TrEMBL record:
Name of this chain's protein: DUF6705 domain-containing protein
Key words, A-Z: Signal
Pfam family, one: DUF6705
Location of the DUF6705 domain: 1-131
Signal peptide: 1-19
Length: 199
């Protein structure tokens, strides 16, 4: 009787366990470039539950990077997360980069700091590649429309140098009560390419 109960319980556990279906970053990058993606999506990738960095392309970005632009000093820490979900209820997990930023003015005063925030509160996380460029989303002061995409890429001949480009969102609802200085608000990140050096 005990053996039957054990076998039955084990059988139920096996049935209830969902097998993880692995896809690659390359597959999802290829999907994003399909000309008919907006109409048809990528049905061949619908069953994937984990998007894996099988070729370790993310590893090249991991580390601490420093640079300056427009009178600001930047320190950016990038960490690779394996099988990561932004929200535990998400069906799909990714290998991705989570970023943290420290920004100082010319006097050394801290303007922005997310270095000690938990992963899900840095609001700076990667999505996928566009050829050699890795795309990350960023939200700083959302009330002042400080959000957008960050594009990072290593320089071909100098892999300890990385370029960063920030494309600020143009859409959004501005609440002047929460961002009273919007007319003089300067973007936290430079909207021109800047170079960062690996430390």
């Amino acid at each position: 009787m005990k053996n039957r109960l054990f076998i039955f319980t084990f059988f139920l556990m096996v049935i209830s366990c969902k097998a993880q279906v692995i896809g690659t970053l390359e597959q999802f990058e290829e999907c994003s470039m399909r000309p008919n993606r907006d109409q048809e999506g990528c049905p061949d990738l619908d069953n994937i539950t984990y998007v894996k960095d099988t070729n370790n392309k993310l590893n090249q970005f991991v580390g601490t990077w420093k640079g300056s632009a427009n009178g600001k000093q930047y320190e950016i820490k990038l960490e690779k997360k394996i099988n990561y979900k932004n929200d535990p209820s998400d069906d799909l997990s990714w290998d991705r980069i989570i970023g943290r930023i420290l920004v100082k003015d010319t006097s050394g005063n801290i303007i922005y700091n997310s270095m000690n925030k938990p992963d899900n509160e840095t609001f700076f996380s990667g999505f996928n590649f566009q050829r050699t460029v890795y795309v990350m989303s960023f939200v700083g002061n959302y009330d002042c429309l400080e959000s957008g995409d960050i594009f990072i890429e290593l320089k071909v001949n100098t892999p300890n140098e990385m370029t960063l480009f920030y494309s600020q969102d143009k859409d959004g609802l501005l609440n002047p009560a929460k961002c009273p200085n919007f007319s003089t608000f300067v973007s936290l990140l430079p909207t021109q390419k800047m170079t960062l050096i690996k430390q």
